[in-house]
Amino acid sequence: MRSTRATLVIALTAPLLLLLVGCTPAVVLDAADDAANPACAPAMVRLPDTVGELAARETDAQSTAAWGQPAFVLLRCGVPSPAPTATLPCITVDGIDWLRDDSNDPNFVFTTYGRTPAVEVIIDSDGNPDVTNDGVSGFDVLSELAASVSEIPADRTCVSPEVAGS
């Protein structure tokens, strides 16, 4: 009788334990100042389920996203649109202009240029041995996010330093 009861308890609790083990906490992020901007919504709903091999994670703030376990790629929509700058390099990936801030190397911050609201993508590669990026590069990340980000219309584009100086 006792072994039947123990077997029943194990049989009933095992599925629950498996569900709990599979749960990961939401990634804690600060929402951008303009996260409630309606222009963020079309971009957010088109975000990919994976970036490279990194799976999307649940986040706890509006207009944010994260990929990887632990989180390697972080996204916030609604950050201020950057002013024209000659100090940050501008790169174009799949039709989207991004300003690259590598002042916190090995972490990199990419912010869309010419789109309001702007989207910020942080590649969180701080040398933590627990963070594995599965070979995903910053270029790969920006390329895979291009379709989503393109939902926010561009109102200006980057120009080369030669054009800017003329």
TrEMBL record:
Keyword Signal: yes
Signal peptide: 1-26
Pfam families: DUF3515
This protein's record includes keyword Signal: yes
UniProtKB keywords: Signal
Lineage: superkingdom: Bacteria
Protein name stated in the entry: DUF3515 domain-containing protein
Organism this protein belongs to: Salinibacterium xinjiangense
